[in-house]
Design goal:
heterodimer, A: 105 residues, mainly alpha, Cytochrome Bc1 Complex, Chain D, domain 2, disordered N terminus, B: 425 residues, five-stranded mixed beta sheet, four-stranded antiparallel beta sheet, 24 strands, 5% helix, globular
Chain lengths: 105, 425
């Protein structure tokens, strides 16, 4: 009985974790398609003057988006990134970072 | 069960016709378009040039020149610094920011001389320059040789500045096309975010050059006295599109606007396009790094009309004789790039339309605007009669290059990494 209960709890936790992770990336994917893909490319490969996000981990993406959201300049495209990041919530940034890091692996 | 006919008002019929895509007026003869992906997985494809049998030369901005043969086989001909799968690698050809390998053109007498031309940034000179390279393609289409740099001194932006898109290599122009009218090669260049360049009589940035196959000035160029004789027109900002009117042969260019007013200009030999972003003139004060090209308030949104009044693309107050644009994209800047004319009966009502590609850029409330426009330009090149958006079978993309292929289909290279063929039916 104890074993069965453990299994049920563990399974529920795993399912919950996986579902949450998928939901985060899915929301991030929608956000990315709406706000990022036109410059960084559908596969985050970078285009023209807009840098590739390939190989960037979630921590890097989060840090950059938080910097832009704070209105701080980083690089010559800050004038585009700052207004794009201004209204992002912490969840938006986390979702975007999760999606981009996964996409760019 | 009985059938009861119902008379509907005319407005309902018209609405239904619109909803299901039928023309409300039966006289329209606009083609349905289908698209085929010709190449994908490319890295910033920038330009294409065709032979009559469908052989397609194409450039990738940071990789180099390749050719796709009619059977679909691809040969990589001339690679840039850091590439290794090309038949030849030229380590002086470099890629940075908007610069790299840009335009490609096929010699009108290719059958006899097997010659192609590309526009590329190079570090062979110090500081770097843009060059026009002439090369011979072997009969197997798998090598190029006899490289001759027919133009060596097109300015290149050497270092970053305090401007939007301010990295090195910016405002680099780069389209090259042979005129079917006069047989000369036209080369479009950019202002490098350097306010001295566009009106300079000697510096070749912010210009359209007209040269022969050796890079010498075309006979009949009429720039002002003291100007480099290769200059056909001057006072441009960043010209990335050039084509030729199918009836008059007049060269027509597209020019990126500075947060306002992308322009289409029909060129007049020796003409000034009126771009002069110098500080402390025309009512302006100091500007970041001595370039007023995005002022005022260069990193924040504001009414494009206010910007146009402060920093016009065509400054007719300072230069009353400047060439007037045929069209200004309704006062917006959305990344206007390549230009071409649709010709042939297969295009129906669009036969003879000028088409221009937009890469899109959403800044300060301007819609991104990725699209290809169909433009009925007046024969004198001074106005447009109609502007419409081409209903594309593929989604929106950064339309970098649009070229009419030998079979009458349209080819477009998009920054996303593909080249598509668009077929009218």
């Amino acid at each position: 009985m104890k074993v069965s209960l453990f299994c049920v709890i563990a399974t529920a936790l795993l399912m919950g974790s996986a579902t949450l992770q998928a939901a985060d990336k899915s929301t991030g994917e929608t956000l990315y398609a709406d706000a990022c893909a036109q410059c960084h490319g559908p596969n985050a490969q970078g285009m023209a003057s807009f840098p590739s996000l390939s190989g960037r981990d979630a921590e890097y993406i989060t840090s950059r988006l938080e910097t832009y959201r704070a209105g701080e300049k980083v690089g010559s495209n800050s004038f585009l990134m700052i207004p794009n990041a201004t209204d992002l919530s912490d969840d938006d940034i986390a979702n975007l970072a999760a999606y981009i890091a996964d996409k760019a692996e | 069960m009985s059938y009861k006919p119902v008379l509907r008002p005319l407005s309902t019929f018209i609405a239904s016709a619109v909803i299901i895509g039928l023309p409300a007026v039966a006289t329209a003869n606009e083609p349905e378009l289908s698209q085929t992906e010709v190449l994908t997985g490319l890295e910033n494809p920038w330009d294409m040039a065709f032979l009559p049998d469908g052989t397609m030369f194409y450039t990738e901005r940071c990789r180099g020149l390749s050719v796709r043969l009619p059977d679909g086989e691809v040969e990589h001909l001339l690679g840039m610094e850091g590439t290794d799968e090309y038949a030849t690698t030229a380590d002086d050809l470099v890629c940075e920011g908007q610069a790299g390998m840009n335009g490609v053109a096929v010699d009108p007498d290719f059958d006899e001389n097997r010659t192609v031309y590309v526009y590329s940034a190079s570090n062979m000179s110090e500081p770097r320059t843009n060059r026009v390279l002439r090369m011979t393609v072997n009969s197997e289409f798998n090598e190029v040789s006899d490289r001759t740099d027919i133009v060596e001194d097109i300015p290149y932006k050497p270092a970053a500045t305090d401007h939007p898109f301010g990295d090195a290599g910016a405002h680099n122009g780069g389209r090259i096309r042979f005129s079917p009218e006069d047989g000369y090669l036209y080369v479009t260049t950019g202002d490098n975010h350097n306010s001295e360049i566009p009106q300079s009589p000697e510096l070749l940035g912010g210009k359209v050059l007209r040269i022969d196959r050796d890079g010498e000035a075309a006979e009949g160029n009429e720039p002002p006295e003291g100007f480099d004789p290769r200059i056909y027109t001057y006072g441009h900002r960043n010209v990335q599109g050039i084509t030729f009117h199918p009836n008059t042969g007049q060269p027509i260019v597209t020019e990126h606007g500075p947060w306002h007013s992308d322009e289409i200009n029909a060129l007049v030999n020796g003409g000034n396009s009126g771009w002069d972003p110098k500080p402390n003139m025309a009512g302006r004060g100091d500007c970041p790094d001595d370039y007023c090209g995005y002022e005022p308030n260069q990193t924040e949104g504001m009414d494009p009309k206010e910007r146009a009044a402060y920093m016009p693309v065509t400054d007719t107050e300072t230069y009353p004789d400047a060439m007037q644009p045929a069209w200004k994209n309704d006062g917006l800047s959305q990344g206007i790039s390549s230009a071409e004319f649709l010709t042939g009966e297969q295009w129906g009502d669009w036969d003879g339309r000028l088409i221009v590609g937009f890469m899109g850029i959403g800044f300060g409330g301007t819609p991104v605007g990725q699209r290809i426009n169909l433009i009925d330009i007046a024969e004198d090149g001074l106005s447009v009669n109609d502007v419409a958006e081409m209903p594309l079978p593929m989604g929106a993309a950064r339309f970098r290059s649009i070229v009419l292929g030998p079979g009458g289909d349209l080819y477009t290279a998009v920054d996303e990494g593909s080249i598509y063929r668009i077929t009218p039916e």
